[in-house]
């Protein structure tokens, strides 16, 4: 059995999404404010309701007006003396829901007997809806109307007081503003939500399941006569544990912890977790067995010895008290005794310490010094803490040690869902990679789990780290994309892309992209936009051009990938699934159509491009003349209001040679000669060797722009482009260089698109009801 996918609706900015879960590890990735945290919070709210309570802001904002209209309808009906029709129908589409869809084997039906939709169901997909809804609508109506009546009384009293107040002739001061609670139904629920709402479960029909449409899930519609299931249908079915993003590492405890609190509870230090783990699984005082006899005898012997010493120590003090007339003949005599508990030995700030090796004069290394837990680096504290919590979660699920004798230990849930939020906090890059590779194996490191197919562990991790993302296969990645108001709804919402569907199963393209992204450590899954460049020179110089000339771009989250025109198109499927705004900076790569050899660009001589990106992706043109004459619209591929892809390649330039007065047309072949053509005066005197010298000589010896271009073409055949880029970076006048025209056009386009993408509301929003 496993959770196949979940559908979340009307929860914060998750208006309606589907998230497919891997049978092992699922990773939530996406740019900031894309909905990852909302999804993790929804899982905690619905699946751990006793630890994570709902609040009014969990309702999607576009539903607030409808909730307030329900309250306004109640008020108007009472004012008009009408009978108020209090029914659940107007609430249904406004309520936060989580649909849990399971894959259940034929031999596992006894775990889900309350969820089986029909008598002839024999296994397969099965669904349950968890809905946060009013517990008693009549009581909600009664208390809301009472609160509104009380608020009206206060408003009228304030108005009467203002009318009877003696006006001040010298200062026409308006009466002070008075805001009285509740102003509307959402205002009322802001304070009373928990007392009037609860989670109820409903069985779903697999036959009525609908696939997502236009990136939005289509949850099953429940009829008005649908009745909630009795009790908690997930009890005994799913065990849920989570590690939140805020872990309180390195902090001293603010109060006493309950010995029975779960190991791995939020905001606890490692020593606190260790103490909790001892209490749940190891404490010999709880349900002792023969293995605990030695420990219990040692504790009792220590207690007797300590009591004897205390009696001797307090003898003088008690004798002094007796001199005051107490105790008398019939009065009980005071005695001092101890009550030692094994847990007390761990109840201090240095229960966990770290040994520091000391080198003695003899050269022997001895672990003599110990530092308290708070003195160790946060990165190591976080790693140790998270691994320990995962172990605690596993052992709590499997009822290891003393937990096996708990009254609730009769049933082991077939599903174990573990939620980890932002594990990368305080961790170095290499440690992040180690954690995500080892986390799942820690959760399965139990003799009863290694070969088990009946007990399923599913790990869900949300992250902002490219190092974590690159250590996880595409099949496990779920990409969250942020959409502004006016695109699919009247408020900003999120969609989720299942990246297992990008390349198909075990394709050569997937292998290439996976290995490439791991070698690049690109932030592709967390960026606002991507720039794909041709070679090392562009990779080194383009960020500096942006820093010097395009400050708005410099403030955005843009990932830059060096991939080359012959391979950039391999990223097409991934870019399109992500809906990621992309600029491709590539080379024209002209060939002689007849001979097939590389040639310098020249119009009207039957040339074609050898660039696979230009031929097969954007703009899907092969003829060099068409490419040289293409306008900006041809170079852009539009997918939706926020997602476009633009290509930038070398275009004809108007240049004037140093010392000449006639303007000529130049046809650059690569980034390097395009940069030099745009800055002929600078490079004609720029000191340096290698390509710098060859370019300088070509400019000074060339008799025309065409002749200079031919010399550039020859120089670039065996020139070291990366070395050239480094020489340019060292130039004092770098900030004064003109950015190649084709790149400048692309960067200006990208800047405009990002400005549009960053707004929360698109112009001319669609009229669909959210």
From TrEMBL:
Q: Which InterPro entries match?
A: AAA_GajA/Old/RecF-like (IPR041685), Bact_Antivir_Def_Nuclease (IPR051396), P-loop_NTPase (IPR027417), TOPRIM_OLD (IPR034139)
The record's section on SUPFAM superfamilies has:
P-loop containing nucleoside triphosphate hydrolases (SSF52540)
Every copy of the OLD protein-like TOPRIM domain together lies at: 525-589
Regions crossing the membrane? none
Domain of life of the source: Bacteria
Region named Disordered: 247-270
Q: Which residues form the Endonuclease GajA/Old nuclease/RecF-like AAA domain?
A: 1-50, 273-469
Q: What is the protein's name according to its record? A: AAA family ATPase
């Amino acid at each position: 059995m496993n959770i196949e996918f979940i559908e979340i609706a009307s929860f914060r900015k998750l208006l309606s999404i589907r998230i497919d879960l891997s049978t092992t590890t699922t990773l939530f990735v996406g740019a900031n404010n894309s909905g990852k945290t909302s999804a993790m919070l929804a899982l905690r709210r619905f699946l751990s309701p006793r630890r994570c309570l709902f609040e009014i802001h969990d309702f999607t904002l576009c539903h607030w007006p409808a909730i307030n209209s329900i309250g306004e309808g109640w008020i108007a009906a009472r004012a008009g003396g009408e009978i108020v029709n209090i029914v659940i129908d107007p609430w249904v589409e406004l309520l936060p829901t989580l649909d849990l869809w399971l894959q259940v084997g034929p031999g596992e039906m006894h775990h889900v007997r309350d969820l089986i939709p029909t008598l002839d169901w024999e296994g397969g997909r099965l669904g349950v809806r968890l809905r946060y809804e009013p517990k008693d609508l009549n009581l909600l109506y009664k208390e809301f109307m009472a609160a509104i009546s009380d608020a009206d009384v206060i408003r009228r009293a304030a108005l009467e007081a203002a009318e009877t107040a003696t006006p001040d002739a010298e200062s026409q001061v308006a009466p002070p503003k008075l805001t009285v609670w509740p102003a509307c139904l959402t205002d009322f629920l802001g304070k009373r939500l928990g007392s009037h709402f609860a989670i109820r479960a409903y069985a779903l029909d697999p036959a009525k399941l609908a696939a997502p449409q236009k990136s939005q899930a289509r949850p099953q519609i429940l009829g008005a006569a649908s009745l909630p299931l009795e009790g908690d249908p997930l009890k005994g079915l799913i065990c849920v544990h989570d590690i939140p993003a805020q872990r309180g590492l390195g902090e001293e405890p603010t109060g006493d912890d309950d010995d029975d609190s779960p190991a791995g509870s939020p905001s606890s230090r490692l020593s606190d977790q260790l103490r909790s783990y001892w209490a749940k699984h190891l404490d010999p005082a709880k349900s002792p067995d023969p293995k605990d006899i030695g420990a219990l005898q040692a504790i009792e012997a220590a207690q007797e010895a300590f009591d004897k010493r205390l009696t001797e120590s307090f003898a003088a003090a008690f004798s002094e008290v007796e001199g005051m007339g107490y105790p008398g003949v019939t009065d009980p005599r005071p005695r001092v005794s101890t009550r030692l508990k094994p847990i007390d030995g761990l109840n201090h700030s240095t229960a966990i310490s770290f040994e520091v090796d000391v080198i003695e004069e003899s050269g022997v290394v001895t672990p003599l010094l110990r530092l308290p837990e708070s003195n160790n680096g946060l990165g190591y504290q976080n790693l140790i803490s998270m691994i320990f919590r995962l172990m605690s979660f596993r052992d709590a699920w499997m009822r290891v040690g003393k937990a096996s004798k708990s009254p609730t230990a009769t049933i082991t849930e077939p599903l174990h869902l573990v939620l980890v939020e932002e594990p990368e906090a305080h961790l170095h890059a290499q440690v992040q990679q180690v954690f995500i590779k080892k986390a799942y194996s820690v959760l399965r490191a139990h003799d009863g789990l290694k070969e088990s197919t009946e007990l399923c562990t599913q790990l869900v991790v949300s992250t902002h780290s490219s190092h974590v993302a690159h250590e996880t296969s595409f099949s496990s990645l779920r990409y969250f994309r942020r959409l502004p108001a006016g695109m699919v709804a009247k408020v900003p919402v999120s969609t989720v892309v299942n990246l297992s569907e990008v390349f198909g199963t075990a394709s050569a393209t997937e292998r290439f992209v996976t290995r490439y992204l791991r070698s690049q450590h690109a932030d592709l899954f967390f960026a606002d936009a991507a720039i794909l460049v041709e070679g090392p020179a562009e990779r080194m110089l383009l960020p500096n051009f942006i820093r010097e000339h395009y400050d708005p771009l410099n403030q955005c989250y843009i990932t830059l990938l060096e991939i080359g025109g012959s391979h950039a198109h391999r990223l097409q499927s991934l870019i399109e699934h992500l809906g990621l705004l992309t600029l491709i900076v590539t080379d024209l790569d002209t060939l002689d159509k007849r001979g097939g050899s590389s040639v310098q660009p020249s119009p009207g001589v039957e040339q074609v491009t050898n660039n696979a990106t230009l031929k097969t992706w954007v703009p899907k043109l092969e003829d060099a003349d068409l490419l040289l004459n293409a306008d900006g619209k041809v170079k852009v591929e539009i997918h939706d209001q926020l997602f476009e892809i633009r290509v930038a390649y070398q275009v004809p330039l108007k240049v004037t040679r140093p010392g000449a007065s006639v303007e000529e047309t130049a046809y650059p072949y690569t980034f390097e000669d395009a940069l030099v053509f745009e800055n002929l005066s600078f490079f004609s005197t720029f000191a340096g060797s290698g390509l710098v010298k060859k370019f300088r000589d070509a400019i000074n010896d060339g008799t025309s722009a065409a002749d200079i271009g031919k010399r550039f073409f020859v120089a670039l055949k065996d020139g070291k482009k990366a070395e050239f880029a480094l020489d340019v970076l060292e130039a004092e006048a770098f900030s004064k260089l003109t950015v190649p025209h084709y790149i400048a056009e692309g960067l200006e386009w990208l800047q405009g698109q990002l400005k549009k993408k960053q707004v929360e509301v698109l112009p001319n929003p669609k009229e669909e009801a959210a």
